[in-house]
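Possible regression after last week's pipeline update?

I re-ran a chain I had predicted before the update to compare outputs. Posting the input and the new output here so someone can diff against the archived version. Not blocking, just want to make sure nothing changed silently.
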Amino acid sequence: MNISRVDLNLLVYLDVLLRERSVTKAASQLGISQPAMSNGLKRLRKLFDDPLLIRTSEGMTPTERAKKLEPKIRTILADLEKTIQPRAEFNAQESHRVFRIMASDYAECTLIPALLSHLRELAPHLSLDIMTPSDVSFRDVEQGRVDMVINRFDAMPQSFHQKTLWLDHFSCILSKTNPVMNRFNLDSYLEAQHVWVSKTGMGVGVGVDPADVQRLGWVDNVLKRLGKKRRITVFTRHYQAAALLAEQKDLIATVPSKLAQLQLANNRVQIMPPPFEIPPFELKMVWSPLLQNNPEHQWMRHLISETAATLDQS
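New output (post-update):
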């Protein structure tokens, strides 16, 4: 087939169709009529000699050929856009852009305040829309509806770009009146009552099963390997709440150290190293390949990285 006879707009149509899995939604996103999009799909099927999208009980489902084409088409369009668009420098001082950032409660408490401080000086008109893990899906990130995700991850799509912002360890927050303060060791730690806090994934959360140790995370997985188990009294998804609850004389909150350091001025609590070794974890920034070459996005990623590096040294 002669490439000169191929309408490159069809590749744009295919990219949007594969992302939206709907002729109606794809047409709306491209600002064309539904019949025009249907005609485009018909031409695409002829071009690739494949149905590409088949209507099933779950909606429009891509064929195996379409699944293989999807990342290739996205890469071609991203490279093409990078080639033909003029490279204009991002004027942070004048920008009124809204950056949508999904940040975990941990990242929101530790990183975002320092980031906002820099932004108010460097980009006074720019706005941040901080979203929670329950607000966002990987699909939202892939499509560029969310600028970046700052969180801890067990797994993520291979197509995403990522950068490690810092490595953090764990600390224990407990009341200065907590009886275990007199002998803080593994035995007294296990005898105490605990606050569990975590929300590392994305999507709508579900309740915690205290018996499902594997899903309880780093602290409880380490204890399981030691043949031990702690007594969890409260389950929360908010680190600041965990720190406040730790003021009660019979509770211990085992949290990331950078979060615990925010309580240094709180004279009601004591920060202690855990009485057993817990492996550190990475805080990562993740974004869509569709935004990789966007000048505004590049500027923000650089600022976030610099801010994180400064905090990591403090």
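Follow-up from reviewer: compared with the archived run. The first strand starts at residue 53 and ends at 56. Marking as no regression found.
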